[in-house]
Design goal:
This protein is an alpha+beta fold. The chain folds into 2 domains: 4-147, 2-Layer Sandwich (Heat Shock Protein 90); 150-334, PPM-type phosphatase domain (Phosphatase 2c, domain 1). The protein has 8 helices and 18 strands. The chain has a 6-stranded antiparallel sheet, covered by helices on one side. Strand 5 (120-126) and strand 6 form a beta hairpin.
Length: 341
Amino acid sequence: MGESLTLPCPRPTAHIAVDHYSAVHLAAETARAVAGQCGLPGALPDRAAVIASELASNLANHATNGALFIQALPLGGGMEIVAADHGPGIGELHQCLTDGYTTGTTLGAGLGAVKRIATTLTIRTAPGDGTLVSARLTAPDTAASADQEAGAICVPAEREQTSGDGCALADHGSARTALVVDGLGHGPHAAEAAQVALRSFHRGPDAPLPEILTGLHRALRRTRGAAVGLLRLHPERAEYCGVGNVRVVTLTSLGPGHRLSGQPGIAGLNMTPPQVRAFPVPPGGTVLLHSDGVDHRWAQAPSAFVRRLPPSLLAASLVHSHRLPRDDATVLAARPRQRLP
């Protein structure tokens, strides 16, 4: 089946609400810790702290409803820091990306330094829609890891320390396979179910989707069970296999396309034989998996700004704007791999 690239079970996303300048220090220390967990060498943890500090300072000084999401990259190889807000947007983006540019009145100060330090920097901004910034950081010998066309955010319910959701992504051959799992309920027992599912997935992410789901079902029998969504992306087409309320949505610049949810049941408790549903993926289209901690009504009429977001920003945008605070929330967004030469 070819060599596959997989990850150990990842930690949930660190979510920092930036509603006061005191959050800047927390953001910097969190980024430094995550960089260490990702194995980034030398001065890179300190550089991650600088990126987080600059982005958090911008949010604290100028934005509305700002937040940072800090985590490992979906396919490993480094980390990312994503800033999201509902502020006024950046009016002079090109000027703000000049190193040394500073202002006391406009969102965007410090972005030049972030651009210089980060391996890749992706920004989308518009009046009325706010600003999204993704800064990815990798070691010099793994810089290509920053270009993976995927984004994922997994955050726990409010007042919970652990997330009962989980997600994973694996590349193999010309395909990539994604998992979103939502442990029944939330809290430690739901988190245990999610981790069991992630470990089972990583044993063979390139197997046929019904085989993966059946293996997950067996592994989850010792837990409270979970909703599971499996997505396999091929060039120009995708396959979905799931049980429970994990949704899949195809999104292009024109709007949502195919929308599916899993067959009835709970993996680990009761599940009918898995079925695979196939659908096309238009050129440039993104396919999302998300748990029910994200309000499904986001897909009824997403704005042009949201429809054009790359995967690295789309996942953060949906969690930031459409999560249901009393539930764990996960979004994994990805595009098919480019055809291998």
